[in-house]
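Predict structure. Chain length: 264.
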Amino acid sequence: MSNFLAELIGTMILIILGNGVVAGVLLKDSKGEGGGWIVITLAWGLAVTMAIYAVGSISGAHINPAVTIGLASVGELEWAKVPYYITGQFVGAIIGAAIVWLHYLPHWKRTEDQGAKLACYANTPAIDRTWANLLSEVIGTFVLLLALMFIGANEFSKGLNPLIVGFLIVAIGQSLGGTTGYAINPARDLGPRIAHFLLPIAGKGPSGWKYSWIPVAGPVVGGTYGALFYQAVFKENLSTLFWVFSAVVLSIIILAVLEERKSD
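Prediction complete.
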């Protein structure tokens, strides 16, 4: 199996199980309706775990462009492979989102809340603050890549790594996901958002394109910085890119603080 197909299948599994639990919790007359945030974060962790078990031995199961770009930025993946990985991830995300629509087909019409329908596909912020929302995605994905590096530096019993990564996703969701819904993955947000736009979902509203750049840019910046930070601090391998991304992250922090002051 090629890396492209492995990433497609892995990301498809991720979206079916991850976006599927959101639909199960939010859509009207689902047996899981009202299950809450803890149910969602636990299922997302298990979704990541299952995706890694499925294709981890083939492509490494990045299932996330931020992971792919972050690893490439520190030399752990050839840049020539990046387009194949990312294309597979986005195609898999769109297919997975379409399957979620089919699975919950009778429930879309019964659900009047357009925001809830969009949430089954893409992220929206709890409080709409452009730079603060971007910073949240940067921080969440920074923690993701840094922790993945920690996990990779340790030895676990054979087959245990995917479960550890799943626990990491649960921890990020419960600790940092309350602000933006923790996309921490451009494919996880933009792929299903495209599906939301294209699919004939009963009573759907707008697809939230104004916000859509944040769950893409934030994870790419945060994920790359997390990988570069690990190399710089733990491996004492400073690079020009590390300083560039340090400046970018510092700028986002300053803009978020200034934005919040203006909102008072």
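Summary: DSSP finds eleven helices and no strands in the chain.
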